[in-house]
Specification:
- Helices cover 14% and strands 36% of the residues.
- The chain has helices at residues 2-14, 120-138, 269-276, 291-294, and strands spanning 21-25, 34-40, 48-52, 55-57, 59-61, 67-72, 80-88, 91-99, 106-109, 165-168, 171-172, 178-181, 188-190, 195-203, 207-215, 218-228, 235-236, 241-245, 256-262, 265-267.
- The strands form four sheets. Strands 12, 13, 14, 15, 16, 17, 18, 19 and 20 form a nine-stranded antiparallel beta sheet that branches.
- A hairpin with a 2-residue loop joins β19 (256-262) and β20.
- The relative contact order is 0.17.
- Residues 1-16 and 280-301 have low confidence and may be disordered.
- It binds zinc ion.
- Zinc ion binds at residues 176, 178, 180, 257, 304-305.
- Residues 176, 178, 180, 257, 304-305 line the site of zinc ion.
């Protein structure tokens, strides 16, 4: 009698308890997009875990105490429904993401042949740079180094070439994993947000390159600079000048290439600006173009890489 009473009381107290409430924000659920997950837990949990696409995603708490995770849908993700699994304070929730098909344009570019097929004496350099980049992506700062909104590194229009399949001098090469901003040479380049400079060097393909580790697996790579104004190890704030726009590396003319890595997923910087950018969505200088705009191909009038 007594045992039964305790059980029923347990049920009564458990039943009205609030569950995890999970919502997500994204420009689109498609390859190359950043998805901001927001997790509301009934009691303030000390830790929250988020798993999707067969990997764990770093979480953070904002100033109001809400938990978030930035989940990146890699450029090569196949269409289909993927579960995001959230665990907090002994509770679980599943948020399905249905990744829609996205067809990326193909573009034909003509560049110096040595930048399509590096000469044999350059291969060791190219391979060592690729390995160095992988080591950077695999070892992000474990804590969040940014606090404010993300900003555009330059005020100029982006030609939305993210994901484009590039054919260089008639030969297919890896897809384009950044956004190209149509900036004149010499334009100062701002840090899109705070972080630590983990690379400030001339690389074979991306020319003068700066990589900012924003923490929690989020990195910005800024390429083709004419001048680098930071050094590896420097801490930068959002908007600090890290260099100047140029035309170094594999390019057809001056522009800024901004690429974002998120927990090793290759995502469109403009989709990051959409969910965590400074300007209100749909207006202002930080506006992210609509997805239909991003499918416009404006080549070959504009410089790119
Ligand atoms: Zn580019």
């Amino acid at each position: 009698m007594r045992a039964a009473l305790i059980v029923s009381l347990g049920l009564l107290t458990a039943a009205p308890q609030a569950r995890l409430a999970v919502t997500h924000t994204a420009r689109a659920i498609q390859p190359g997009e950043v998805v901001l997950m927001t997790i509301d837990a009934p009691a303030a949990p000390r830790d929250v875990a988020v798993r999707a696409f067969e990997r764990d995603w770093p979480v953070y708490r904002d100033a109001e105490g809400a938990w978030h995770a930035l989940v990146g849908i890699d450029l090569d993700a196949k269409p289909g429904t993927y579960d995001v699994k959230i665990a907090a304070a002994g509770d679980h929730a599943t948020e399905p993401l249905t990744v829609a098909r996205r067809v990326f344009p193909t573009r034909q570019l003509t560049v110096n042949p040595d930048l399509v097929n590096p000469p044999p004496e350059m291969m060791a350099r190219v391979e060592s740079e690729a390995q160095h980049l992988h080591e950077i992506w695999d070892h992000p700062a474990p804590q969040r180094l940014w606090a404010s909104a993300f900003v555009r590194p330059v005020p100029d229009e982006a030609n939305s070439a993210f994901g484009t399949r590039s054919i260089y001098n008639g030969q297919p090469r890896s897809p384009h994993t950044g956004a190209d901003f149509l900036s004149p040479a010499g334009r100062p380049v701002k840090a899109p947000n705070a972080g630590r400079i983990v690379l400030a060097a001339a690389l074979y393909f991306t020319g003068n390159t700066v990589i900012i580790d924003h923490g929690l697996g989020l990195f910005s790579l800024l390429a083709h600079l004419s001048e680098i104004d930071v050094t590896t190890g420097d801490m930068v704030a959002a908007g600090d000048i890290v260099g100047k726009v140029g035309a170094t590396g594999r390019v057809t003319g001056p522009h800024l290439h901004w690429a974002v890595r998120l927990n090793n997923a290759r995502v469109d910087p403009l989709s990051l600006l959409y969910v965590l950018g400074a300007a209100p969505r749909g207006g202002g200088p930080g506006e992210a173009p609509s997805l239909s705009d991003t499918l416009l191909v404006r080549e070959p009038r504009t410089p790119h890489d």
